[in-house]
Automatic annotation (TrEMBL):
Belongs to the paxM FAD-dependent monooxygenase family. InterPro entries: FAD-bd, FAD-dep_Monooxygenase_BioMet, FAD/NAD-bd_sf. GO terms for molecular function: FAD binding; monooxygenase activity. Signal peptide: none annotated. PANTHER family: MONOOXYGENASE, PUTATIVE (AFU_ORTHOLOGUE AFUA_2G01950)-RELATED. Keywords: FAD, Flavoprotein, Monooxygenase, Oxidoreductase. SUPFAM superfamilies: FAD/NAD(P)-binding domain. This is FAD-dependent monooxygenase OpS4. Pfam families: FAD_binding_3. Residues 6-358 form the FAD-binding domain.
Length: 431
């Protein structure tokens, strides 16, 4: 029988909290240390793809998440930047029909709030205002302020892109993303837009504009009834993992001055104090996700932060949560931790790193200036459903398909069954 472990998770984001819930399911004692005093209300919408909703449903969260899931009734539209021409449209429930599990969209804040509530109800201890400054990889133990420390059987680093734990395990806390993209973020009150016939269509569906700069407009009724709009720019604006910086609204308006008139009109409603800027960032590959001692492991953005174009940041953290708990459950004693954690790394690393790479390639594809490559992309969007796997026979895709425009790539991303895959791989790796 697997040992019941005393586990510290550093970071109460989506990866840390879903892992806390997952580890509790097997009877482990779990403490989450979060540096902020409460879940942060910042951040835009989070898309939870069917590969992740499958996991949350298995954790018993269907009802609570479906109440919170806030996608508006309208379609998701993919548009041309210059004039808003619709290249393709799809309904969210088309994804459910194809992949067998729903696709949820919620504000990041709401997802975190739900996960934190459920974790606490199930016996997880969350300590807020508990910033971790360092880790003893051998004991293992984490160091908090005023010289205090906490020991555990296992430390899980879920502390996001600026991870302290990564610095200790892999030696690369300081990083500079290779991403050339900045992201301005503004919430617009939906009631204001609904009273203007030139922009009220934006509140009835979600919209993506592809072009030399991109725009993503997602309705978030759960977040003060706002339309959240991300304006992606090719620029060195914004800082990695820094979500509180105000952006220069006038500069943003200049950058989008020749864009779809609907976007120019939308920007007349923007207020400077609501305009934030951050950097779209990912991480270079990290050689090891597990400390040599086999007592500290990293998950989520701490080890595989990816660009938003791939739409998988939160969903990959949620897959980590399922896989990690299953691997730990395969240990016969605490001495097996290095072995099962290396199995976790072996199972998760190639898939997460493929997503990181896809994020880079898809960003290039989304940000194309007008020209031959842009025309090919737009023709592809018109002729193939962008998020649907044309020609897929429904069988599980274990390995990433080759080629940038391979329709099977979405079957690999969204139909992936992390429970079944982990079980099969573990049987192989631990025999
Ligand atoms: C404020 C914020 C806003 C975001 N907004 C968006 C968005 O609009 N769109 C999007 O796609 N993605 C956004 N993200 C990223 C997205 O949430 C993640 O990609 C995804 O959810 C994976 O989450 P994670 O738990 O691995 O990392 P994160 O969400 O970064 O969570 C890490 C957690 O660890 C905590 N932490 C960090 N260092 C320490 C420490 N030393 N000690 C204790 N706790 C620590 C952080 O406060 C945070 O709660 C945002 C992240 C943050 C933190």
């Amino acid at each position: 029988m697997a040992p019941k472990l005393n586990i510290i998770i550093v970071g109460g984001g989506i990866a840390g909290l879903s892992t806390a819930i997952s580890l509790r399911r097997y009877g482990n004692t779990v403490t989450v240390l979060e540096r902020h005093s409460c879940p942060q209300a910042l951040g835009g919408p989070i898309g939870l793809t069917p590969n992740a909703t499958r996991v949350l449903i298995e954790y018993g969260l269907r009802e609570v998440m479906e109440k919170a899931h806030v996608a508006v009734e309208g379609e998701i539209n993919f548009r041309r930047w210059a004039n808003g021409e619709v290249l393709d449209s799809m309904r969210r429930d088309e994804l459910t029909e194809v992949y067998g599990f729903p696709s949820w969209s919620c504000s990041r804040f709401k997802v975190q709030e739900i996960l934190a509530d459920v974790a606490v109800q199930r016996g997880v201890k969350i300590i807020f205002s508990a910033q971790v400054f360092g880790v003893d990889l051998e004991k293992p133990a984490v160091f908090l302020k005023h010289g205090t420390s906490m020991e555990a059987d296992l430390v899980v680093g879920a502390d996001g892109i600026r991870s302290v734990i990564r610095g200790a395990v892999a030696g690369n806390t300081e990083f500079k993303t290779s991403s050339p993209y900045g992201s301005y973020n503004i919430d617009f009150p939906r009631s204001l837009l609904q009273s203007d016939p030139e922009v009220d269509y934006l509140t009835r569906g979600d919209n993506f504009w592809f072009g030399p700069q991109i725009v993503v407009a997602i309705n978030m009724p759960d977040h003060g009834d706002n339309l959240n709009v991300a304006f992606g720019t090719v620029s060195d604006d914004g800082q990695e993992g820094e979500w509180h910086t105000h952006g220069d609204l006038e500069k943003l308006k200049d950058t989008f001055a020749d864009y779809d008139p609907g976007i120019i009109k939308l920007l007349t409603y923007a207020k400077a104090e609501d305009c934030y800027i951050w950097r779209q960032s990912d991480l270079p590959h990290t050689d090891h996700w597990v400390s040599k001692s086999g007592r500290v492991v990293m998950i989520g953005d701490a080890v595989h932060a990816m660009l938003p174009a791939v739409g998988m940041g939160a969903s990959q953290g949620i897959e980590d949560s399922a896989c990690l708990a299953m691997c730990l459950e395969a240990a016969q004693s605490i001495h097996d931790l290095p072995k099962v954690l290396h199995a976790f790394e072996t199972i998760r690393k190639p898939r997460a790193e493929w997503m990181v790479q896809r994020g880079r390639e898809e960003s290039v594809g989304f940000f194309l200036p007008d020209g031959e490559a842009q025309q090919q992309r737009d023709a592809y969007i018109k002729n193939n459903r962008l998020w649907l796997p044309t020609g897929w026979d429904g069988s599980h895709v274990d390995e990433p398909p080759e080629g940038q425009f391979n329709p099977l790539s979405h079957a690999y991303r969204q139909a992936f069954n992390i429970f079944d895959y982990t079980e099969r791989r573990l049987a192989d790796l631990l025999k």
